[in-house]
Amino acid sequence: MNGRFDSSTTAFEPPEDYRLGIRGGPLLPSAVRARLSPAIARDIITGEPGQFALFYSDVAPTGQRFAIALALAGLAEQIPIISVQRGRLRATSDVAWWEPVDEADASRGMLASSTRLPALVGHAGVVSNDPYRTLAILRDELTDVPIDLYPPDLAPQQRAWTERIFFDLHAAVYRAGFVTDQHEYETEVTRVEHLLSDLDHQVQKSEYLLGNGPTDADVWLFTLLIRFDVVYAPSFRLHRYRVRDFPSLHDYVRRLYRSPIFRITTDFDAITRGYHLGIPILNRGIVPVGPDDLFLR
């Protein structure tokens, strides 16, 4: 590993006073209930396996991002990764599968239900539901990881990309879907389309955004792109282009989807149901049929 890892400078977080101007969307810093302290992060990493668990929903991109990141970091046994829809994720370097949760994890799941997911939960309650710095703080406590999603030598580039991914994709798709002013809507559409075009050029150069290995920027981006053609394009008023209209970007998503962890944590049925039944303005009492994953093979 080159350089020194520092979560305070690597992880992107939007300004405390940033507002979406709409209801819903990504959790913002001002709404975070619990932030992970370095001391608790140290306990999570160095303590007995299973003392803390991640609870997340298959519907939301941030939950999938956390699940993928912990699994790639080799922490699936140290920190049980639990989907509230499908159970506990087990993983090795080349295979992943689901198992039912045990009684202890089911009890902790009740604690997790009191806050917005994803959340890290101990026996006494939620220790973090911060979507911005939690993963980086955990990485701070690791001396060795099979896949380093926060390589220190790429920190400035990663932070720049994750900032764009947040403002120009994660926040922008929600604003495009739910703002009520035509000009604001068209501004967000342009923002999203420019980013997709820039990403298409970027991934022509290498297998991943920043070189030959995945970073947190890739994981965050994947969880949004995998939902784009399925939900954001047809239902969030972004239907001029799809990911499939950007050849290099489409190939990039397909490559990531072939990885067992990326693929097993993608549940199109949960995503489709969650968005169309869980967002009041989209809920017409009907769940759209599909999709399959043929466009990713």
UniProtKB/TrEMBL annotation:
GO CC annotation, single: cytoplasm
Keyword list, A-Z: Transferase
Record GO terms (molecular function): glutathione transferase activity
PANTHER family the record matches: GLUTATHIONE S-TRANSFERASE OMEGA-LIKE 1-RELATED, GLUTATHIONYL-HYDROQUINONE REDUCTASE
Protein name, as recorded: Glutathione S-transferase, C-terminal domain protein
